[in-house]
């Protein structure tokens, strides 16, 4: 059975009130959404909280899903807006606070890879990082990313192209051997 068709079927059953469909959706899509948040979040706890908030919002607005429309972009659009709302809320509350230094254990290999990825993506704007994560980490198509971010496909292509160019320029600056022979040093 095709996984996309299965998601459509599960979503239709969820809208009809089938609790087994809810469980199946959480099991199928939950890990993807958790990775989406973990790649951007400071802590695992925040990623867990954002995932829970996303499922609550999905439950509240499940009636707005149009049967036949792509399911994953609909989920990711909600997750994206949950993350934006969380960022706005935390930036307002932490603007006046002084964080206490926390002792942390050595990072796990997944955290180390996430840190390396974040360091690589650091020169990009937050919106460019978001799009790269959706395309390359979550494996979404351009159309799905456009739907999730409320942008046009052309706009997503342009933002991705500019992000790649910025990353390439940064990598060329770090390693002079990567610079084309025709380009001045």
From the spread of the alpha carbons, the general shape counts as globular
Helical proportion? over 70%
Question: Using only CA atoms, what is the Rg?
Answer: 19 Å
The separation of the N and C termini measures 55 Å
CATH second-level architecture of the largest domain? Orthogonal Bundle
The CATH superfamily of the largest domain bears the name: RNA polymerase sigma factor, region 2, helix turn helix motif
Structure classification: mainly alpha
- Biggest sheet architecture: none
CATH fold-level label of the largest domain = Rna Polymerase Sigma Factor, Chain: A
Mean model confidence by pLDDT: 82
Question: Any idea how many domains?
Answer: 2
Summarize the structure.
The chain has 185 residues and is mainly α. The chain has 2 domains: 1-94, Orthogonal Bundle (Rna Polymerase Sigma Factor, Chain: A), CATH 1.10.1740; 107-185, Winged helix-like DNA-binding domain superfamily/Winged helix DNA-binding domain (Arc Repressor Mutant, subunit A), CATH 1.10.10.10. It has 8 helices and no strands.
What features would you describe in this structure?
The structure is a single chain. With 185 residues, the protein is an all-alpha fold. It folds into 2 domains: 1-94, RNA polymerase sigma factor, region 2, helix turn helix motif (Rna Polymerase Sigma Factor, Chain: A, Orthogonal Bundle); 107-185, Winged helix-like DNA-binding domain superfamily/Winged helix DNA-binding domain (Arc Repressor Mutant, subunit A, Orthogonal Bundle). Helix content is 70%, strand content 0%. It contains 8 helices and no strands. The mean pLDDT is 82.
């Amino acid at each position: 059975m095709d996984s996309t068709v299965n998601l459509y079927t599960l979503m239709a059953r969820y809208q009809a009130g089938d609790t087994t469909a809810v469980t199946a959706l959480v099991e199928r899509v939950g890990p993807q959404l958790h990775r989406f948040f973990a790649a951007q979040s400071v802590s695992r706890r925040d990623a867990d909280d954002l995932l829970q908030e996303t499922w609550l919002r999905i439950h509240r607005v499940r009636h707005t899903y149009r049967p036949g429309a792509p399911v994953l972009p609909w989920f990711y659009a909600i997750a994206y807006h949950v993350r934006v709302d969380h960022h706005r809320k935390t930036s307002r509350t932490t603007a006046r606070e002084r964080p206490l230094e926390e002792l942390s254990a050595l990072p796990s290999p997944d955290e180390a890879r996430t840190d390396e990825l974040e360091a690589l993506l650091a020169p990009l704007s937050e919106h460019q990082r978001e799009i790269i994560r959706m395309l390359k980490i979550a494996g979404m198509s351009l159309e799905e990313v456009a739907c999730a971010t409320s942008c046009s496909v052309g706009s997503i292509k342009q933002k991705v192209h500019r992000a790649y160019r910025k990353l390439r320029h940064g990598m060329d600056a770090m390693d002079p051997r990567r610079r084309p022979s025709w380009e001045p040093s």
